[in-house]
């Protein structure tokens, strides 16, 4: 009985500690910095900075998201990229918290926005959501933000031409317990060939779902930015995330930077949650990317 009592107390302590940590992580974010180099960045006149936001899901940090906005401003970005799922794609869900933040970003730097599955759901299912997506897109674009729906935009970052492509995959490719057949040719069908699109520029691909990373790399992006997985909900230190929204365990890419030869993959752990409001050892993050000639 004494042993059982001790075990019960230990389990109770662990549960309480986990609950406290989950609460803390759901209400705070960190800034994660990565350094990216590559053959196409040798022409940089100085280091360039990109801020990457993903998966906010209407969450707020401080009044009117002032804490998050200040963190973006403090990074001193030359370019701000949004990887999708800034809102929650459900009926009768207000997207104003996300919109209020997004509309203030162009005051800091040029902004490009690629869709996630939550924006895609609103767009593809007007019979359910009405004209919510059209209103949201109009409000975003009127702020001067470039919406990338299977399109490419170009920017100059400290003397280097950058091509930013926003991939919009059909919502059906996000179905639970299923993985669609997505190949480099599929990406080319949506965006055109990377060689033609980039035309010698440093090619950044905003592709929300990292489940199809092999196709993105095969397409030829120099830097792939993804999100969607919320870091795998619970992360095992030194190992990675546990589960994806589609129900797959231990994804290869879940919330880190990985180099694949001359190509770089960065997957954001995201800034918010929805439905399963759980994060453990998985702090929400704002990503700051420093582009450099050499390490």
TrEMBL record:
Calcineurin-like phosphoesterase domain location is: 49-231
Q: What are the entry keywords?
A: Hydrolase, Metal-binding
Which domain of life, per UniProt?
Bacteria
Q: Which GO terms describe its biological process?
A: lipid A biosynthetic process
The UniProt entry, under SUPFAM superfamilies, shows: Metallo-dependent phosphatases (SSF56300)
Q: Does the keyword Metal-binding apply?
A: yes
Q: Which GO terms describe its molecular function?
A: metal ion binding; UDP-2,3-diacylglucosamine hydrolase activity
Q: Which GO terms describe its cellular component?
A: membrane
| Name of the featured protein | Metallophosphoesterase
Q: Which organism is it from?
A: Candidatus Mediterraneibacter quadrami
């Amino acid at each position: 009985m004494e042993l059982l009592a001790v075990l019960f107390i230990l389990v109770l302590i662990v549960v309480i500690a986990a609950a406290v940590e989950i609460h803390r992580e759901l209400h705070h974010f960190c800034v994660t910095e990565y350094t990216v180099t590559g053959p196409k960045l040798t022409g940089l006149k100085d280091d360039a900075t990109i801020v990457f936001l993903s998966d906010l899901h209407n969450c707020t940090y401080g009044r009117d998201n002032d804490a998050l906005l200040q963190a973006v401003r403090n990074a001193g970005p030359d370019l701000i990229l949004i990887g999708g799922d800034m809102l929650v794609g459900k009926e009768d869900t207000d997207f104003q918290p996300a919109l209020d933040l997004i509309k203030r970003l162009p005051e800091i730097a040029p902004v490009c926005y690629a869709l996630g599955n939550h924006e895609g759901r609103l767009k593809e299912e007007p019979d359910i959501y009405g004209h919510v997506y059209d209103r949201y897109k109009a409000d975003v674009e009127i702020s001067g933000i470039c919406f990338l729906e299977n399109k490419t935009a170009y920017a100059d970052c400290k003397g280097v031409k950058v091509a930013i492509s926003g991939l919009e995959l059909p919502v059906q490719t996000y179905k639970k317990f299923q993985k669609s057949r997505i190949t480099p040719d599929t990406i080319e069908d949506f965006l055109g060939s990377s060689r033609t699109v980039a035309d010698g520029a440093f090619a950044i691909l905003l592709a929300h779902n990292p489940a199809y990373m092999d196709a993105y790399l095969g397409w030829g992006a120099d830097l792939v930015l993804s999100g969607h997985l919320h870091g795998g909900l619970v992360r095992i230190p030194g190992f990675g995330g546990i589960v994806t929204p589609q129900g797959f365990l231990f994804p290869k890419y879940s919330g880190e930077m990985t180099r694949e030869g001359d190509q770089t993959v960065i997957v954001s752990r995201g800034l918010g949650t929805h439905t399963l409001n759980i994060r453990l050892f998985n702090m929400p993050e704002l990503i700051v990317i420093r582009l450099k000639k050499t390490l």
